[in-house]
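Quick entry between incubations.
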Amino acid sequence: MVRQIIASLVAIMIFPLIVTAGDTSAPKSAYLYIGWPNDGEVIRSGHPFRVWFGLRNMGVAPKGVDRHAAGHHHLLIDTPLPPFDEEIPSDRNHIHFGAGQTETMLELPPGKHTLQLLMGDAEHLPHNPPIYSKQITITVK
Amino acid sequence: MLIRILAIMTMLNVSAMTAVWAEQTPAPKNARLYIIWPPDGAVIKGGKLWVRMGLRNAGVAPKGVEMANVGHHHLLLDTDLPPLDEEIPSDRNHLHFGGGQTEARLEDLSPGEHTIQLLLGDDNHVPHDPPIYSNKITITVPPY
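Done. Structure below.
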């Protein structure tokens, strides 16, 4: 009995680790990266700058378009990765590019900021496995 | 009578032509297509490279997706722009990226000069009206 309870407790503890992403599969070779700015880039305050979304071995599709090996970009600003098994939040820290955009202009207040990309499927859920870029840090001054 | 027939024939002709034009998807306003990398004049050792395809003020959608302000990339290798009111050819000089890809892997480019140009196609692989295409760049692959 005690052993069963322990077993189910262990199962409960392990199970959340398994549910880590949505149902849409992504190619293992998919590679998401920020083409510009570079990690550590210093950007002049008061000047909007362009962010390039780099994606290899996978395609871009607007939101609502359910295609194999495709998704749309989300730019995470000053925030860690959100949970992979939920819809990506949509707020000032999680910018959605549901029209299939592959670059954007940003203007950020002075200071250090982090940028990271995360692909979402037709329903804004991360893929399985999730496709995200390295997080970079830039300084606006 | 003859004039009336001629007039009707002219009208039919005009409407037929208009219909053909109307099939082209209107271009997204201010859309700009460009090659992020490589730069014009780049020397590519080994003849292998990733071409990064840049699009501004418009989005990328896979082939067959009919939406406003989107298209998919076509890479023209060593060729001029095709007719801009019909389906873009699909062959070794006209590479289609109907999966919504934004980077193109080119391999086994022979030594010498090569030109690269991008052309956006709509859900039916037809250029928009007006057509959206990039500058044509020239890259050089040195002798192996």
